[in-house]
From TrEMBL:
Alphabetical list of Pfam families matching this protein: 5_nucleotid
Annotated source species: Bdellovibrio bacteriovorus (strain ATCC 15356 / DSM 50701 / NCIMB 9529 / HD100)
Annotated protein name in UniProt: 5'-nucleotidase
GO MF annotation terms: 5'-nucleotidase activity; metal ion binding
Keyword set, alphabetical order: Hydrolase, Magnesium, Metal-binding
Coiled-coil residue spans: none
Entry keyword 4Fe-4S: no
Family under the similarity heading: Belongs to the 5'(3')-deoxyribonucleotidase family.
Length: 457
């Protein structure tokens, strides 16, 4: 059964001429828990070599501790969940939630400025292990009497640098290469749907930050065996652009190098782009050489900043985002619906009582009307009892999602900051690429009409 594609902005696939796809976590799916556990172990190894205590090797990775969309407060050593306005709606210090008093003392009613270098976004699947390890080391630092750990900001920087180095020096990919079955998910259906889109005249290109040799390895493993209408993935994809340095690809004028697929050697690229394999490059030349407008291209990625946000701001290509956690979120929403209905019923019961109490107190103050104190006391008691019931139901509802952070797309009753970014920059989104490609290449996605606050009665 085809998966669901969710629509933020109207999109007519019939008018799309080129479909671009990121490779890691989009075209090629990973077993994210296995990969993040590897990242966690690799970062620890690098930190210990840099002088961190051997105690780190005893840390156990918890894939469910953090979720995408959190923000790391480097200075305070905290993890934060923000709403769409960047107000904090949940906070952890180390592995423990901050109590109300501690939170108020640190943040009061602060709105987080994400352009401030004190804050680091957890915005990709690759960031789950990062957030987990920073929180674990903060926990160790707080219980350390021998002063073996640096300040919180330095811990965050060191862990991030260890992760960046692991991606840069091949530490992670070397392990993946040796055990592809453990880390990579094969999806024959995806390959067949890619070929279907080619039959409809759609040009498909790969745009990845991975190097050519790793890209070739994964495409040979996950794409090549399932091709029926093409001799190789080189025939399937019009262009394969490696080491693209996204998001710089979308706003800088990096030069293209042509890659020889036989041995990976590179030569300077002269003249206009023609189908083939490249390294580097930039979006401006890509669209100009192929005589494309922004609306002619749909790009699908999994990184809200690197794939979607800067692309939308700088190139105005159409955008689609893959969110692998989405199927769990949607299923949990269905399971939570009866509880949501109970909460809604209680809210409808509470609101007229609050209105009545407001009216009594207003008349008492403005018109010096003698108040019925027993009535006020009864109303306050009833409202408090309903609030207690609602609070218990909210806890029960949140427990159906991530036990620490609740829903991915909501922060309490509001949109999470991650959901806000998704809504603003992704035209459509889905759990996996094949959900989109299962559909007809002539599909017309219509955005639902969203009522404004004053239109809701």
């Amino acid at each position: 059964m085809p998966g669901k594609v969710f629509v933020n902005r109207t999109l007519n696939l019939k008018k799309i001429r080129y479909i671009g796809v990121d490779m890691d976590h989009t075209l090629v799916r990973y077993n994210s828990e296995n990969f993040e556990r590897l990242s966690h172990t690799t970062m620890i190894d690098k930190l210990v070599k840099r002088g961190y205590p051997e105690t780190l090797r005893k840390l156990v990775f918890d894939y469910n501790f953090a979720i995408r969309g959190l923000v790391i407060d480097r200075k305070m050593g905290n993890l934060l969940k923000l709403n769409r306005y960047t107000a904090i709606r949940a906070s952890y210090h180390g592995l423990k939630p901050l109590d109300f008093k501690s939170h108020q003392k640190l943040y009061k009613s602060t709105y987080i400025d994400l352009s401030n270098s004190d804050y680091l976004a957890v915005d990709t699947s690759f960031s789950i292990s990062l957030a987990n390890l920073i929180a674990q080391i903060v926990e160790l630092k707080d219980s350390d009497t021998a002063n073996k750990y640096p300040e919180y900001a330095q811990i965050a920087d060191d862990v991030l640098d260890a992760l960046d180095e692991a991606h840069r020096d091949g530490s992670l990919k070397d392990v993946v290469k040796q055990n592809l079955d453990h880390f990579i998910i094969k999806d024959p259906t995806l390959v067949h749907t890619l070929e279907k889109f080619r039959r409809h005249g759609k040009k498909i290109f790969v745009l990845t930050n991975s190097d050519f040799h790793y890209t070739k390895l994964l495409l040979d493993y996950a794409i090549q065996p399932f091709l029926k209408e093409h001799k190789s993935w080189e025939d399937l994809f019009e262009f394969v652009i490696t080491f693209a340095s996204k998001p710089k690809f979308f706003y800088e004028n990096q030069k293209y190098l042509r890659v020889n697929p036989a041995d990976g050697t590179m030569t300077n690229m002269e003249g206009k782009l023609t189908p083939g394999i490249y390294q580097g490059g930039n979006a401006k030349k890509f669209t100009a050489d192929l005589d494309l407008a922004g609306d002619d291209i749909l790009y699908v990625g999994d990184h809200i900043y690197g794939d979607i946000l800067r692309l939308k701001k700088d190139c105005n290509w159409r955008t689609a985002m893959v969110i692998e956690e989405l199927d769990v979120e949607v299923e949990n929403n269905k399971q939570a619906e009866p509880i949501n209905q109970e909460i809604e019923t209680l809210m409808k019961k509470k609101e007229p009582l609050e209105d009545e109490l407001t009216d009594i107190m207003t008349r008492k103050i403005e018109k010096s009307v003698a108040a019925n104190e027993p009535q006020i006391e009864t109303l306050q008691k009833t409202i408090s009892e309903i609030d207690s019931q609602i609070s218990q139901l909210i806890k029960k509802q949140q427990a159906m999602y991530n036990s620490n952070w609740g829903q991915l797309m909501r922060a309490g009753n509001e949109e999470s900051y991650f959901a806000y970014q998704l809504d603003r920059y992704a035209c459509v989104y889905m759990q996996k690429l094949s959900d989109l490609l299962d559909l007809s290449p002539r599909t017309y996605f219509r955005a639902p009409r969203r009522p404004l606050a004053h239109e809701i009665f």
